[in-house]
Amino acid sequence: MGFRFLKTYNFRNLKDAKIPLPARTIYLVGENGQGKSNFLEAIHLLCFGSSFRTKVDKLIITHEKKEMAIIGLLEKEQENVRINFKFSGKKQIEVNGKKIKDRKELLYNTPCILFCHEDIGFVKGSPDRKRWFMNQTIGLYDPLFIDDLRKYSHLLKMRNSALKEGKIDILSVIDIQLVPQALTIMEKRTKLMEEFQEPFSKVFSTISGFKEKVELEYIPSWKGVSTFDDGMKALEITKKRDLKFGISNSGPHRDNIGFKAEGRDFTKEASTGQLRLISLIMRVAQGNFYTGKVNKKPILLLDDVLLELDPMRRKKFISSLPEYEQAFFTFLPEENILNSRDDSVLVYNVTDGVIS
Ligand SMILES: Nc1ncnc2c1ncn2[C@@H]1O[C@H](COP(=O)(O)OP(=O)(O)OP(=O)(O)O)[C@@H](O)[C@H]1O
Ligand SMILES: [Mg+2]
pLDDT tens digits, residue range 77-123? Predict the structure, then answer.
């Protein structure tokens, strides 16, 4: 199971082609700038309906062209699913010929876990990236959470406009709706971070080889808040400042994740390699956590991440990968991929947008 083929048309530097994918594990090997990550991006677009490299959809169209499309045939237990992603000024996604209204529908069709350089942001980046990790992990198994976030974000926007315009009377009406929504998000994040600790620690102890144990910590913006009244009080505390700056200074949109090693902030002292390793561990744990929750296997996309690991960790990392329907790895030609290769692996060379 997994994608049986991928057809691309005017997508980035990839030459228009139908690429058969008759294997569970696929390696894409090529020099820099040939189109390996673009290929992974195409699969990501079919799984998530969005790119992992840009928010601006028109950038994915081949230069000088006006429209693009990607089609993939996904083999599933019950039936095959044909996913068609098109962009020509507007994004359009079809599943078995039917237009989908919400990208959410796509996510549950083809769960996908991506490993890429930018993942280091989950460990060392802005709190925004850390929230994104929590949100994505919950969203992979709880479709309602995506709606929870949307509702909260809508109310937050309304609240910020009211703050900017100094409309105090409207503010209290919004707050009464915003607090329950905020509490739902916090509850789900709290539960996630409690449950996620175990798969994280398991993978951590297998792969890391660090002397100290690193533990995750959910750092909510509203500390100790668990009831409606607590939430209203928390808003009251920052209200003066909120009105002064025309922005909401507290709430789940300011939550964070901490990484603690023996009580200290691990991210302040860790080497770049260690930070990267932790971000990989987060992704492996995310995959394991997901399979444990829904009893389905994801598609894995691994963009260059093995390159940074020493041979021993590379081996451990590969053996710790979550069970998958299909996995795509990118490699540079000089990388020693043979160590991690068996006969069932399909190897494609990627040269100037041609996959052969
Ligand atoms: N919209 C576009 N139209 C045409 N070419 C594009 C477009 N967007 C990106 N490219 C080109 O695609 C090429 C391949 O990019 P990609 O990121 O897939 O390389 P890669 O094989 O993953 O390389 P690396 O090993 O450096 O990561 C780049 O040279 C880039 O200039
Ligand atoms: Mg690349």
Answer: 888 999 999 999 999 999 999 999 888 888 878 889 999 989 999 99
- Measured from the CA of 59, which atom of ligand 1 is nearest? 1
CB 33 less than 6 A from any atom of ligand 1: yes
Question: Beta partners for 302?
Answer: 115, 329
CATH 3.40.50.300 placement within the chain: 1-111+296-356
The number of C-alpha atoms within 13 Å of 239 and in the hemisphere containing its C-beta is: 15
Atom of ligand 1 nearest to the CA of 62: 3
In the chain, which residues fall in CATH 1.20.1050.90?
Answer: 126-283
Strands 256-261, 264-265: pairing is antiparallel
Domain spanning 126-283: CATH 1.20.1050.90: yes
What whole-number distance in Å separates Cα of residue 115 and Cα of residue 133?
A: 12
Q: Determine the pLDDT at residue 343.
A: 66
CATH code of the domain made up of 1-111+296-356: 3.40.50.300
Q: Which atom of ligand 1 is nearest to the CA of 35?
A: 18
3-state SS, one letter per residue, for 276-320: HHHHHHHHHHHHHHHHHHHCCCCEEEECCHHHHCCHHHHHHHHHH
Could you give the C-alpha distances from 43 to 65, 183, 292, 300, in angstroms and in order?
Answer: 21, 35, 23, 10
63 CB under 6 A from ligand 1? yes
Q: Give the number of the ligand closest to the Cα of residue 32.
A: 1
